Amino acid sequence: MPDGSIAGYRLTGRARAGEVGTWYDALAPDGARAGALRLDPVVLAAPGARERVVAAAAADRRLAQGGLTGLLPIVDLVAARTEVWLLTARPAMPAVTELPAGPGVAPDAGSAATVLVETAQTLLAVHAAGLAHGALHAGTVVAGEDGTAMLAERGLLAALRGVQPTAEHDAAAWAALARNLAAGWAAGDPAAARLFDRAAAAATTGGLGAARDVLLAGRDALPAGFATREPLVASIQRWAAGDAPTTPAPAGPEVDEGEIVTLLHPPAGARGPAGPVPPAGGADVPAGGLRFGPGVPAETTAAQIWRAGRDQSTLASGPPRGRTRRRRGGLLGSILVFLLILVAAVFLWSRRGDPLAVTAVEVRTPKAKGCDVTVNVIGVITTNGSAGPVTYEWRPSGERPVRQTDQLRSGAPTHQVSLKWRVAGDGTRRLTARLRVISPAGADGRPLEGKASFTYRC
Fold first, then answer.
1. Distance CA 261, CA 259 (A)
2. From CA 225, how far away is CA 113, in angstroms rounded?
3. Which among 31, 154, 266, 314 has most CB atoms closer than 10 A?
């Protein structure tokens, strides 16, 4: 293999330290910019670390195949003798920490809001899949050339350490990121800085969904036109112009291309103790043994390659007898795996979603006819369609409040409630029924309320 390349990816010489190794800017075989992460061989030597890294990378691939775009897209995970490289379809530079700092050159408060909203949304999707990042900070948030924010190294640090990352840890890390951006990119914009501090507090107490909603509701505090990402893109361009490679590209391992073990896409025809290698889409999910979240069953192809080493990838000298029969069996097995994955993905998708949020409250009252009547007051609570409990309180004028909690199912954007209000006596009175939603609160943190009035005459 030529120096300065790995599995067809040519390293340019621009590099930065990552959480679990060294990131290199690279050119893919088609000439497009890409990324390559050389994992630290010392931490990879821990028992089970390699298998857990394979599982984390495979989980990211499944998320990307399911439509999640907020993670740095993984192309492959390859091993060349003692080295392990993670290859990505987009460069892992610049990270948020690398962007220019200082007045006039640093990204603005609108750029910070863009990064925070997109990372929160991506983390919510990751958590909905039963996963977590585990090492979120400004160094693992990558700014794409178009200003999009992508999360890098998801789950890798936890995999190497053999620990289980949690959504609560991610929320706390996101809150720290929000406060750092408030003190940095929003230093000259006090209103935006206060908004980011409120979002950080919401993440700590109510989770990332609440934090994201605080940012969306407070967009009036952000610079005009922030959604265009122009200041962020300009900052990325300044970084690209001023951060030319200062060191030569590292030499790749002195091995032949045929000796590179492709862990997520085993080479066609490769075989080992488990028989033929299944297609990449089901390489790490055996039929009848679906498993989501960090970790995959021990008998995956990738795990077998790690255990068996380079000999696992030896190419067969010729087609063995019975190859057609095994190929048919492999095809049927792959179809079954695909169907099982599809069913599981649909199930997970149906369970995912944003936290329940109330967007409006409306109250309607009929005309009161006659004396000593029961008025049926109708309330309509409009939500974002997510599932969860809603606690509300009826407040009839002159009467004690009536509080109740209903459990809402997902998919219904409105929820109707009613109050049977008994009115009696002589005279004419103007009465008002108020409906206040106690929880969840509105976007500004205060309860939403609706009211309607009617006239009672007797």
1. 6
2. 12
3. 154
What is the C-alpha to C-alpha distance for residues 176 and 170, in angstroms, rounded to an integer? Answer: 10
Cα angle 357-363-364, degrees, rounded to a multiple of 5: 145
What b-and-e string marks burial along 112-140, b requiring 16 or more CB atoms within 10 Å of the CB?
bbbbbbbbbbbbbbbbbbebbbbbbbbbb
Q: What is the mean pLDDT of the chain?
A: 78
The residues near 47 (Cβ < 8 Å, ≥ 6 apart) are none
Asked whether 46 and 162 are in contact (CB, 8 A), the reply is yes
Q: For the chain, list the domains and their CATH numbers.
A: 5-90+246-350 (3.30.200.20), 96-242 (1.10.510), 358-457 (2.60.40.10)
One-letter amino acid at 261 equals V
Output the six-digit token pair for 404.
């109740």
Structure tokens at 359: 């967007």
Report yes or no: 278 and 301 within 8 Å, Cβ to Cβ. Answer: yes
Q: How far is CA 49 from CA 24, 39, 162, 284, in A?
A: 22, 11, 7, 16
Confidence of residue 324 (pLDDT cuts 50, 70, 90): very low
Give the residue ranges of DSSP H helices in 293-322: 301-308
Percent of the chain topping pLDDT 70:
75
The first and second tokens of residue 260, run together, are 């590179």
Asked if omega into 94 is within 30° of 0 (cis), the reply is yes
Rg for the chain, CA atoms, rounded = 28
Closest CA to 110 of 259, 245, 258, 223: 223
Q: How far apart are CA 189 and CA 206, in angstroms?
A: 25
Q: Which structure tokens are listed for 390?
A: 């809603």
Joined tokens for residue 399: 């009467």
Task: Give 320-329 contacts, CB < 8 A, sequence gap 24+.
Answer: 326/275, 326/276, 327/276
What's residue 343's pLDDT?
52
Residues with Cβ within 8 Å of residue 413, at least 6 apart in sequence: 382, 383, 384, 385
Nearest 5°: CA angle at 384, between 382 and 389?
80
Q: Which residues contact 243 (CB under 8 A, 6 or more apart)?
A: 14, 94, 98
d(CA 192, CA 211): 14
Encoded tokens for 137: 């900070």
